[in-house]
Amino acid sequence: MITDPEVDCSAALAWVEEVLGKRVEGVRRLSGGWTSTMLAITVGGHESVVLRLMTNEPWRTHGEPLTTRESEIQRMLVNTTVPAPRSLALDATGERCGHPAHLMTLLPGTIEPQRTDDASIAGLAGLLADIHATEPTIEVRGYQSWAWEAKFVVPAWATDAQLWEDAFALLRGEPPTYEPCFIHRDFQPRNVLWADGGISGIVDWVETSIGPAWLDVAHCATNLAITHGTEVADRFADAYVMATGCDPQPYFDVMDVVGFLPPPERASFIDDPLELARLEERLAAVLPRCQ
């Protein structure tokens, strides 16, 4: 069972038992999850469901639309080839669970962010291409930039202040035109599951939007650059271009890098000096491509 004293899951687990009509036999906290407490729950003798509890601010404040969106998107994807979890139940207001909650199926596989071989990179690109080819059958919101004006402050750890100032100046201008499509909006290795050597699932659908395909490419590329360096990031972007014929839009690479900066008076998601250096290196690589 959960041992984290900061998260009281008793009401949520009682709700799960009521929804499923089965006794909860075990609970395991899943790794990751900046926004939420993610629980793998054993019912009927085997782990079969996942419960998202939107416990972390500022996402908890917006938990009702976020969990509702994820549930609606997962229901929409049931009849597609995109390997997403299936929504089972929703307590979007947190009335029953104490926090906004979404119950969904557990997909097989594990997160393997260390995968950088060509076949794995091509698999990621192919999965993203399939997501972008999805024609929504429900209304999906327009995308939101995570690089808002309040973040346009040169970070204290930066080694090239002018590089960041130039990026901010670029983003103050109009974005390029693009063909809107269905985007995951948080597509990155920590949200992809692998099993038996292949991709078995893509999770975390709370930010799904209609927007530029390259913003998804950029977000995955930035994450790869932070972990592995910009060469791996570029290999992924090239694989996506190969799979789709899509033209790169480096403006959105810059938008995504700047989006990793924290807003004023808030801690950064990244604190490792090497990862911060790689983030700046990624900016130095993509910004000149906008000229």
Automatic annotation (TrEMBL):
Domain Aminoglycoside phosphotransferase: 27-240
Transmembrane segments: none
InterPro entries, A to Z: AGP_Transferase, Aminoglycoside_PTrfase, Kinase-like_dom_sf
Domain of life: Bacteria
Protein name as annotated: Aminoglycoside phosphotransferase domain-containing protein
Organism: Nocardioides luteus
Lineage, uppermost ranks: Bacteria, Bacillati, Actinomycetota, Actinomycetes, Propionibacteriales
